[in-house]
TrEMBL record:
Residues in GIY-YIG domain copies: 2-78
Pfam families according to UniProt: GIY-YIG (PF01541)
InterPro entries (UniProt xref): GIY-YIG_endonuc, GIY-YIG_endonuc_sf, UPF0213_domain
Name by which UniProt lists this protein: GIY-YIG nuclease family protein
CDD domains per record: GIY-YIG_UPF0213 (cd10456)
SUPFAM superfamilies, alphabetized: GIY-YIG endonuclease
Organism name: Mesonia ostreae
Length: 106
């Protein structure tokens, strides 16, 4: 059976990168070797695998990747830490938990 993986990497600048592949080890090696100069991760090496999920359907892995890419940093960290209550909490209000509050000048 063929597997597909959705993964989250921690970059050296402390940002997260989310991707999808059919070979997790090979793809992590490619990211860390800097195979593609135009890739988001190229200037952010070394990279550390923080989370992944294995799927049997490539469309499911792509769906999960796109879903996670839309999440706030706090929600991604809740997933990585398997903090299910935090995952629910940070799903409720992206502007409250995902972005720094804006300052109003009156």
């Amino acid at each position: 059976m063929k597997y597909y993986y959705t993964y989250i990497l921690l970059c050296s600048d402390n940002s997260y990168y989310t991707g999808m592949t059919n070979n997790l080890k090979r793809r992590l090696d490619e990211h860390n070797q800097g195979e593609v100069r135009s890739c988001y991760t190229y200037k952010r090496r070394p990279l550390i695998l923080k989370w992944h999920i294995k799927c049997t359907n490539p469309l499911e892995a792509i769906r999960i990747e796109k879903q996670i890419k839309g999440w706030s940093r706090k929600k991604k960290e809740a997933l990585i830490k398997e903090n299910w209550q935090g995952l629910i909490r940070f799903s409720k209000n992206y502007t409250q938990f995902g972005k720094p509050p804006s300052t109003s000048f009156g």
